[in-house]
Design a protein that fits this description.
The protein has about 120 residues and is an all-beta fold. The protein has no helices and eleven strands. Strands 5-6-7-8-11 form a five-stranded antiparallel sheet, with no helix packed on it. A four-stranded antiparallel sheet has the order 1-2-3-4, with no helix packed on it.
Length: about 120
């Protein structure tokens, strides 16, 4: 059986780490850790389900975004050592940002994450 390549190469991605499918909006979010450039240069891309790029740097200025999940029209994304809460409709990061270690998972319409967490500014 001959193998078929089902994806497409998008050279503008920078160290893509994970992909999340948003079934409500029928889009894909791609977490780009960007280990190429220095500083907080990570970003999340938004793609159509056919693989075409809707917005390459939809959310930018991140550390190293990784695991993602959607709950109540919010995109939760692990960004290095913190959990970001992103308002999908407004394309903005909502406060507070949570400090977290691990990954984010949505299960049965409930949000769950693993690791220790605290709100920024909390002692």
């Amino acid at each position: 059986m001959e193998e078929q390549f089902l994806g497409s190469y998008i050279p503008a991605f920078k160290t893509p780490e994970s992909v999340y499918y948003d079934s409500k909006r029928e889009v894909l979010y791609v977490a780009n850790m960007n280990r190429i450039d220095e500083g907080e240069t990570g970003f999340i891309s938004k793609l159509a389900t056919d693989g075409s790029v809707l917005e390459l740097e939809w959310i930018k200025g991140l550390k190293e975004p990784r695991g993602m999940g959607v709950y109540n029209d919010l995109l939760f994304a692990v960004d290095s050592d913190r959990l970001l809460i992103i308002d999908i409709e407004n394309s903005t990061i909502k406060p507070p940002t949570l400090i977290i270690v691990g990954d984010v998972v949505t299960l049965h319409k409930k949000l769950a994450w693993f690791g220790s967490a605290k709100t920024v500014g909390e002692s």
